[in-house]
Amino acid sequence: MVEQHTPRSLIVTFYGAYGRSFEGPVPVAALIRLLGAAGVDAPSVRSSVSRLKRRGFLLPARAADGSAAYGLSEEARRLLEDGDRRIYGAPQPSADWLVAVFSVPEQERHKRHLLRSRLAGLGFGAVAPGVWIAPAGLYEETGNTLERLHLTPYVELFRGAHLGFAPSAEAVARWWDLAALAKQHEEFLDRHEPVLRALQSGPEPSPEEAYRGYLLALDSWRRLPYADPGLPRALLPANWPGDRAAAVFAELHARLRDAGAAFARA
Known about the structure:
The protein is of the alpha+beta class. It has eleven helices and seven strands. The chain has helices at 7-17, 28-36, 42-54, 74-88, 109-122, 139-148, 168-175, 178-201, 207-221, 224-227, 242-264, and strands at residues 26-27, 58-62, 68-72, 97-102, 125-128, 131-135, 155-160. A four-stranded antiparallel beta sheet has the order 5-6-4-7, sandwiched between helices. Strands 1-3-2 form a three-stranded antiparallel beta sheet. Helix 5 (109-122) packs antiparallel against helix 6 (139-148) and helix 8 crosses helix 11. The longest helix is centred in the C-terminal third of the chain and has 24 residues, at 178-201. The protein starts with 6 loop residues before the first helix and ends with a helix. The model has no long low-confidence stretch (mean pLDDT 93).
Protein backbone atom coordinates (compact mmCIF):
# COMPACT_ATOMS: atom_id res chain seq x y z
CA MET A 1 0.00 0.00 0.00
CA VAL A 2 1.12 3.58 -0.66
CA GLU A 3 2.61 5.19 2.44
CA GLN A 4 -0.19 6.71 4.48
CA HIS A 5 -0.56 9.79 6.63
CA THR A 6 2.06 11.88 4.83
CA PRO A 7 1.67 15.61 5.47
CA ARG A 8 0.52 16.29 1.91
CA SER A 9 -2.02 13.44 2.00
CA LEU A 10 -3.40 14.63 5.33
CA ILE A 11 -3.83 18.18 4.03
CA VAL A 12 -5.82 16.90 1.04
CA THR A 13 -7.88 14.73 3.40
CA PHE A 14 -8.48 17.70 5.71
CA TYR A 15 -9.82 19.85 2.87
CA GLY A 16 -12.06 17.00 1.75
CA ALA A 17 -13.43 16.38 5.24
CA TYR A 18 -13.57 19.87 6.81
CA GLY A 19 -11.82 22.57 4.78
CA ARG A 20 -14.68 23.05 2.33
CA SER A 21 -17.01 24.07 5.17
CA PHE A 22 -14.83 27.02 6.22
CA GLU A 23 -16.20 30.46 5.43
CA GLY A 24 -13.55 31.52 2.97
CA PRO A 25 -10.00 30.19 2.65
CA VAL A 26 -8.37 28.33 5.53
CA PRO A 27 -5.79 30.46 7.41
CA VAL A 28 -2.30 29.03 7.50
CA ALA A 29 -2.35 29.27 11.31
CA ALA A 30 -5.46 27.08 11.36
CA LEU A 31 -3.85 24.55 9.03
CA ILE A 32 -0.83 24.33 11.31
CA ARG A 33 -3.06 23.82 14.37
CA LEU A 34 -5.31 21.27 12.72
CA LEU A 35 -2.55 19.24 11.09
CA GLY A 36 -0.56 19.48 14.31
CA ALA A 37 -3.39 17.61 16.02
CA ALA A 38 -2.66 14.74 13.62
CA GLY A 39 1.07 14.80 14.34
CA VAL A 40 2.33 17.03 11.50
CA ASP A 41 4.79 19.76 12.48
CA ALA A 42 4.58 23.33 11.17
CA PRO A 43 7.52 23.16 8.70
CA SER A 44 6.01 20.04 7.11
CA VAL A 45 2.63 21.76 6.78
CA ARG A 46 4.21 24.79 5.09
CA SER A 47 6.31 22.76 2.65
CA SER A 48 3.40 20.48 1.76
CA VAL A 49 1.09 23.44 1.20
CA SER A 50 3.71 24.93 -1.13
CA ARG A 51 3.81 21.69 -3.16
CA LEU A 52 0.03 21.58 -3.37
CA LYS A 53 0.06 25.21 -4.53
CA ARG A 54 2.55 24.36 -7.30
CA ARG A 55 0.30 21.50 -8.39
CA GLY A 56 -2.67 23.88 -8.64
CA PHE A 57 -4.62 22.18 -5.85
CA LEU A 58 -4.44 25.14 -3.44
CA LEU A 59 -4.58 28.85 -4.18
CA PRO A 60 -3.02 31.52 -1.94
CA ALA A 61 -5.51 33.98 -0.47
CA ARG A 62 -6.17 36.19 2.54
CA ALA A 63 -8.38 35.36 5.49
CA ALA A 64 -10.92 37.89 6.80
CA ASP A 65 -8.33 39.25 9.22
CA GLY A 66 -5.77 39.71 6.44
CA SER A 67 -3.60 36.74 7.41
CA ALA A 68 -2.20 34.27 4.88
CA ALA A 69 -4.62 31.53 3.89
CA TYR A 70 -5.25 28.90 1.22
CA GLY A 71 -8.39 27.99 -0.66
CA LEU A 72 -9.17 25.24 -3.13
CA SER A 73 -8.82 25.71 -6.87
CA GLU A 74 -11.87 24.92 -8.99
CA GLU A 75 -10.19 21.77 -10.28
CA ALA A 76 -9.49 20.68 -6.69
CA ARG A 77 -13.16 21.21 -5.79
CA ARG A 78 -14.25 19.05 -8.74
CA LEU A 79 -11.78 16.34 -7.74
CA LEU A 80 -13.07 16.33 -4.17
CA GLU A 81 -16.69 16.24 -5.35
CA ASP A 82 -15.90 13.25 -7.56
CA GLY A 83 -14.19 11.69 -4.56
CA ASP A 84 -17.26 12.22 -2.36
CA ARG A 85 -19.33 9.95 -4.57
CA ARG A 86 -16.70 7.24 -4.53
CA ILE A 87 -15.59 7.50 -0.88
CA TYR A 88 -19.00 7.86 0.81
CA GLY A 89 -21.34 6.23 -1.70
CA ALA A 90 -21.99 2.51 -1.89
CA PRO A 91 -21.21 0.98 -5.31
CA GLN A 92 -24.33 0.34 -7.38
CA PRO A 93 -24.56 -3.37 -8.27
CA SER A 94 -24.68 -4.02 -12.01
CA ALA A 95 -24.14 -7.01 -14.24
CA ASP A 96 -22.75 -4.68 -16.92
CA TRP A 97 -19.18 -3.59 -17.50
CA LEU A 98 -17.62 -0.39 -18.78
CA VAL A 99 -14.94 -1.08 -21.39
CA ALA A 100 -12.38 1.57 -22.36
CA VAL A 101 -10.56 0.99 -25.65
CA PHE A 102 -7.81 3.44 -26.46
CA SER A 103 -5.17 4.06 -29.09
CA VAL A 104 -2.53 6.78 -28.80
CA PRO A 105 -0.10 7.70 -31.62
CA GLU A 106 3.54 6.91 -30.89
CA GLN A 107 4.51 10.59 -31.05
CA GLU A 108 2.12 11.20 -28.14
CA ARG A 109 3.10 8.18 -26.07
CA HIS A 110 3.26 10.32 -22.90
CA LYS A 111 -0.53 10.49 -23.16
CA ARG A 112 -0.65 6.70 -23.35
CA HIS A 113 1.09 6.53 -19.97
CA LEU A 114 -1.27 9.18 -18.58
CA LEU A 115 -4.30 7.24 -19.82
CA ARG A 116 -3.13 4.00 -18.26
CA SER A 117 -2.31 5.62 -14.93
CA ARG A 118 -5.63 7.47 -14.73
CA LEU A 119 -7.68 4.42 -15.69
CA ALA A 120 -5.81 2.38 -13.08
CA GLY A 121 -6.41 5.17 -10.57
CA LEU A 122 -10.13 5.05 -11.29
CA GLY A 123 -10.16 1.31 -10.56
CA PHE A 124 -10.05 -0.17 -14.07
CA GLY A 125 -8.48 -3.57 -14.64
CA ALA A 126 -6.31 -4.33 -17.67
CA VAL A 127 -7.77 -6.89 -20.08
CA ALA A 128 -5.22 -6.43 -22.88
CA PRO A 129 -3.01 -3.63 -24.24
CA GLY A 130 -5.35 -0.72 -24.91
CA VAL A 131 -8.40 -2.50 -23.42
CA TRP A 132 -9.41 -1.79 -19.81
CA ILE A 133 -12.55 -2.70 -17.90
CA ALA A 134 -14.46 -1.52 -14.82
CA PRO A 135 -17.93 -1.82 -13.29
CA ALA A 136 -20.43 0.10 -15.41
CA GLY A 137 -21.27 2.47 -12.56
CA LEU A 138 -17.97 4.29 -13.11
CA TYR A 139 -19.10 5.67 -16.47
CA GLU A 140 -19.86 9.24 -15.38
CA GLU A 141 -16.72 9.66 -13.30
CA THR A 142 -14.58 8.15 -16.07
CA GLY A 143 -16.08 10.53 -18.63
CA ASN A 144 -15.48 13.52 -16.36
CA THR A 145 -11.86 12.51 -15.80
CA LEU A 146 -11.10 11.94 -19.48
CA GLU A 147 -12.70 15.24 -20.44
CA ARG A 148 -10.82 17.13 -17.74
CA LEU A 149 -7.51 15.72 -19.00
CA HIS A 150 -8.42 16.27 -22.71
CA LEU A 151 -8.00 12.55 -23.42
CA THR A 152 -11.39 11.84 -25.03
CA PRO A 153 -10.02 11.85 -28.63
CA TYR A 154 -8.02 8.70 -27.83
CA VAL A 155 -10.69 6.63 -26.04
CA GLU A 156 -13.92 4.84 -26.87
CA LEU A 157 -16.19 3.71 -24.03
CA PHE A 158 -18.55 0.73 -24.32
CA ARG A 159 -21.06 -0.76 -21.90
CA GLY A 160 -22.05 -4.40 -22.01
CA ALA A 161 -22.03 -7.89 -20.53
CA HIS A 162 -19.18 -10.38 -20.34
CA LEU A 163 -20.09 -13.26 -22.64
CA GLY A 164 -17.07 -15.51 -22.30
CA PHE A 165 -15.19 -17.56 -22.57
CA ALA A 166 -13.64 -17.95 -19.12
CA PRO A 167 -15.99 -17.77 -16.12
CA SER A 168 -16.32 -14.17 -15.02
CA ALA A 169 -14.79 -14.86 -11.60
CA GLU A 170 -11.68 -16.27 -13.29
CA ALA A 171 -11.54 -13.29 -15.63
CA VAL A 172 -11.83 -10.79 -12.77
CA ALA A 173 -8.90 -12.50 -11.02
CA ARG A 174 -6.81 -11.90 -14.16
CA TRP A 175 -7.84 -8.27 -14.63
CA TRP A 176 -7.32 -7.17 -11.01
CA ASP A 177 -4.72 -8.19 -8.44
CA LEU A 178 -7.25 -9.43 -5.89
CA ALA A 179 -4.61 -10.55 -3.40
CA ALA A 180 -3.16 -7.03 -3.31
CA LEU A 181 -6.63 -5.52 -2.95
CA ALA A 182 -7.49 -7.86 -0.09
CA LYS A 183 -4.23 -6.90 1.62
CA GLN A 184 -5.14 -3.20 1.43
CA HIS A 185 -8.49 -3.90 3.07
CA GLU A 186 -6.80 -5.99 5.78
CA GLU A 187 -4.27 -3.23 6.47
CA PHE A 188 -7.11 -0.75 6.90
CA LEU A 189 -8.80 -3.12 9.33
CA ASP A 190 -5.57 -3.66 11.27
CA ARG A 191 -5.21 0.10 11.72
CA HIS A 192 -8.79 1.17 12.37
CA GLU A 193 -10.92 -1.72 13.62
CA PRO A 194 -9.25 -1.48 17.09
CA VAL A 195 -10.10 2.24 17.10
CA LEU A 196 -13.75 1.41 16.46
CA ARG A 197 -13.81 -1.25 19.18
CA ALA A 198 -12.42 1.28 21.66
CA LEU A 199 -15.13 3.76 20.69
CA GLN A 200 -17.83 1.13 21.08
CA SER A 201 -16.73 0.18 24.57
CA GLY A 202 -15.31 3.44 25.94
CA PRO A 203 -16.41 7.00 26.70
CA GLU A 204 -17.33 9.51 24.02
CA PRO A 205 -14.18 11.05 22.50
CA SER A 206 -13.41 14.72 22.92
CA PRO A 207 -13.83 16.91 19.80
CA GLU A 208 -10.06 16.84 19.24
CA GLU A 209 -9.90 13.05 19.62
CA ALA A 210 -12.84 12.63 17.24
CA TYR A 211 -11.23 14.99 14.72
CA ARG A 212 -7.89 13.17 14.85
CA GLY A 213 -9.46 9.72 14.62
CA TYR A 214 -11.65 10.69 11.70
CA LEU A 215 -8.88 12.43 9.76
CA LEU A 216 -6.60 9.38 10.06
CA ALA A 217 -9.39 6.91 9.21
CA LEU A 218 -10.45 8.91 6.15
CA ASP A 219 -6.84 9.32 5.02
CA SER A 220 -6.47 5.53 5.10
CA TRP A 221 -9.87 4.77 3.59
CA ARG A 222 -10.14 7.23 0.71
CA ARG A 223 -7.77 5.27 -1.55
CA LEU A 224 -9.57 1.96 -1.13
CA PRO A 225 -12.74 2.69 -3.14
CA TYR A 226 -10.46 3.55 -6.06
CA ALA A 227 -8.28 0.46 -5.77
CA ASP A 228 -11.39 -1.72 -5.29
CA PRO A 229 -14.00 -0.17 -7.61
CA GLY A 230 -17.04 -2.10 -6.41
CA LEU A 231 -16.48 -5.42 -8.17
CA PRO A 232 -19.53 -7.73 -8.06
CA ARG A 233 -19.48 -9.62 -4.76
CA ALA A 234 -20.31 -12.93 -6.46
CA LEU A 235 -17.07 -12.69 -8.46
CA LEU A 236 -14.82 -12.15 -5.43
CA PRO A 237 -13.24 -14.77 -3.15
CA ALA A 238 -15.13 -15.97 -0.10
CA ASN A 239 -14.61 -13.94 3.08
CA TRP A 240 -13.68 -10.85 1.06
CA PRO A 241 -12.38 -8.31 3.64
CA GLY A 242 -13.72 -5.33 1.72
CA ASP A 243 -17.19 -5.81 3.21
CA ARG A 244 -15.88 -5.53 6.75
CA ALA A 245 -13.56 -2.63 5.91
CA ALA A 246 -16.46 -0.67 4.41
CA ALA A 247 -18.60 -1.33 7.48
CA VAL A 248 -15.81 -0.20 9.84
CA PHE A 249 -15.28 3.03 7.93
CA ALA A 250 -19.02 3.72 7.75
CA GLU A 251 -19.33 3.45 11.54
CA LEU A 252 -16.23 5.55 12.17
CA HIS A 253 -17.66 8.18 9.82
CA ALA A 254 -20.98 8.18 11.67
CA ARG A 255 -19.36 8.39 15.11
CA LEU A 256 -16.50 10.82 14.45
CA ARG A 257 -17.02 13.19 11.54
CA ASP A 258 -19.56 15.57 13.03
CA ALA A 259 -18.02 15.29 16.49
CA GLY A 260 -14.65 16.32 15.05
CA ALA A 261 -16.12 19.32 13.21
CA ALA A 262 -16.35 21.28 16.48
CA PHE A 263 -12.56 21.07 16.85
CA ALA A 264 -11.94 21.85 13.17
CA ARG A 265 -14.01 25.05 13.39
CA ALA A 266 -12.76 26.20 16.81
